[in-house]
Write a structure and sequence with these properties.
Layout (H helix, E strand, L loop, with lengths): L1 H13 L20 H6 L14 E2 L1 H11 L1 H13 L2 H6 L5 E10 L3 E3 L8 E4 L2 E14 L3 H66 L5 H36 L6 E2 L16 H11 L1 H21 L5 E11 L9 E10 L7 H67 L5 H35 L26
Protein name: Outer membrane protein TolC
GO molecular function: efflux transmembrane transporter activity; porin activity
GO cellular component, one term: efflux pump complex
């Protein structure tokens, strides 16, 4: 990234050396000023190079999250459960067949029929029996809205799970870009520490030859210690960010991330017009679609209670078999008929359910208005945040240019004897701070663009939607990182 290159080319060359300033007694060779020389000096702590970890790309992180995240796996399981709603609803209208079998050990009962004939057993000692019943719904009005409601319930569940999937992938994108930005900031802090070590070494050499006061040595040492503290804080922050990302991916923290590079995240074309952006959010966001369908589900639920006022008609059939023929001599029998049921009064239960259903419709309508207002608000705030992030990044880049030019002029003044050593260190610290600020503002800009795409319902980096794409417009995929 440009930050690392800029620091390597500017900060390291800004370090004043004993050979750059006029010296009194020390030869130029006795005043090394590069970070390599500072690292080799006794005052520079030795560091062990950690083994390089494999780099996890943005695309790999998104794909792993979609495959391995436990929350998303649980959401898919809930979706599979919801897919059975229609089957359960249809079970009331499909044939119901029940088979029963029995064995009874009892006292045998014999009845004489004719004097010259053996008695007839009307009750066997070992009696076997089987019975089958069939029940088929012909006209059951309350099942009609129930079946429609089940299909809509499946659709609502699919949209809800799809919204959870996009929220998860957005969280992974945030975590990855945040970790990559911290990785870039870590590189800046490492370069800055090397510069501070070079400053401290130069100050010690200059103090020994009487070229600077002891205050300069103390200041250089303090700056070096502060740089070490900031580097440690950056390393811990980066490790914490990688741990959070690994938790989302359900994998060990055995990877590194690549600094953000490549094409910028594109701003959706619909975002140019506020009204178009808000309309896109209302049309394409899964949570708004689920809230809209929930209103229809509530209306069908109320209709289901109203249809309970109508009678129900069923076709019935039965078949029995037994090893005891009895007086008729028949071991089997069958029946067929129609059954009509009509609940005339149920103690006011239907009326109470209808009033409850009306309240659920009002609740669903209120939730829909809330979801729409939330979507509009998120789009407006995301657009404002994006505008702020763009201005902040532009300002940060201008600040870097100014700090770079100031550092160059201060170095020239120092070489001419018009600036002090402490002024040079302060200017270089300001340059490093400006570079870090630019890294942070670049991250904010990337996240703001992703947030706007998510608020408009357009963030779908993989396109593996869990809802039915035919019912909703296809979202635009986020550009690959």
């Amino acid at each position: 990234m440009f930050i690392r290159t800029l620091l390597s080319g500017l900060l390291l060359t800004q370090a004043p050396s004993a050979s750059d300033a006029p010296t009194r007694e020390a030869p130029p060779a006795a005043a090394p000023s590069s970070p390599e020389a500072a690292a080799a000096s006794p005052s520079a702590p030795s560091s062990n190079t950690a083994p390089a970890l494999p780099v996890l790309t943005f695309e790999q992180a998104i794909n792993l999250a979609e495959k391995q995240n436990p929350s998303l796996e649980a959401a898919r399981a809930r979706l599979r459960q919801a897919d059975e709603l229609s089957n359960k609803a249809w079970s009331g209208y499909l044939p119901n067949i029940v088979l029963n079998a029995s064995y009874t050990r009892q006292q045998e009962v014999l009845i004489p029929i004719l004097p010259d004939q053996p008695p007839v057993a009307i009750q066997q000692a070992n009696q076997l029996g089987a019975q089958g019943t069939l029940r088929q719904a012909l006209i059951v009005p309350q099942l009609w809205p129930a079946i429609q409601s089940a299909y809509l319930g499946e659709r609502v569940a699919a949209l809800t799970v799809e919204d959870a999937r996009r929220q998860l992938l957005f969280a992974v994108a945030q975590a990855y870009l945040g970790a990559a930005s911290l990785r870039d900031s870590l590189a800046v802090q490492e370069q800055l520490l090397e510069v501070r070590r070079g400053f401290e070494h130069d100050a010690q050499v200059r103090f020994q030859v009487g070229d600077v006061e002891r205050l300069a040595v103390l200041r250089a040492t303090l700056d070096r210690k502060q740089a070490e503290q900031e580097l440690l804080r950056s390393r811990n922050s980066y490790a914490s960010a990688r741990s959070s990302l690994a938790a989302l991916l359900a994998r060990p923290v055995d990877f590194d991330v690549a600094p953000p590079s490549g094409p910028e995240v594109a701003v959706p074309a619909e975002a140019a017009n506020p009204e178009t952006a808000e309309k896109a959010a209302l049309d394409k966001r899964p949570d708004v679609g689920a809230a809209r369908l929930s209103v229809d589900v509530a209306r069908l639920g109320r209709r289901q209670y109203i249809f309970q006022y109508f009678p129900n008609l069923y076709a019935t059939g039965g078949f029995t078999a037994s090893n005891a023929a009895g007086l008729t001599g028949q071991t089997t029998a069958w029946t067929a008929g129609l059954a009509l049921s009509w609940t005339l009064f149920d103690g006011g239960l239907r009326e109470a359910n209808i009033r409850e259903g009306s309240a659920k419709i009002a609740e669903a309508n209120a939730n829909l208005r809330g979801a729409e207002q939330k979507a509009r608000d998120e789009v407006r705030r995301a657009a404002l945040d994006l505008g702020t992030a763009e201005v902040n990044l532009s300002t940060a880049e201008e600040r870097v240019k100014i700090a770079r030019e100031t550092a160059r002029l201060t170095k020239e003044s120092f070489e001419a004897g018009a600036a002090t050593y402490l002024q040079v260190t302060d200017i270089n610290a300001s340059l490093a701070a400006a570079e870090l600020s630019a890294v942070a503002e670049e991250l904010n800009l990337r996240l703001s663009r992703l947030s706007l795409a998510r608020a408009m319902g357009l963030f779908d980096p993989t396109g593996n939607r869990l809802d039915e794409p035919s019912d909703m417009p296809e979202p635009v995929k986020a550009p690959a990182r």
